[in-house]
Write a structure and sequence with these properties.
The protein is mainly α and 127 residues long. It is built from 5 helices and no strands. The relative contact order is 0.18.
Length: 127
Amino acid sequence: MNLLLADLVLLAHIFFVLFVVMSLPLVWLGAAAGWRWVRHFGFRTVHLAAILIVSAEALAGIWCPLTILEDTLRGHDAGKSFIARRLHALLYYDLPSWMFTATYVAFAVAVALTWRRIPPIRKKMQP
């Protein structure tokens, strides 16, 4: 049961990464194409908050809670399924931690600059 839960945590982690990474080019593309949803205040706030949290964790030297949970459930890589091994290969790289921190912070700056260049729109409440 723990291995199944670990695979589900890994899958959630992949979806989180995809949301953070793919939302930025979608905002740029959507702004150029006139897609209104890319200016949705809630979507943009969640996106900015997500990368700011990731960056803050990296700067503080804190491991991602999803990584910790998956490792705990899996027993530190014991018994990974075929799919989990493939997904791990997509998500985890053997690079110095400072490279990840620099990448996260640079990406957060790009998201923040995009916030200013393509600002989200708050819907005004009707009286």
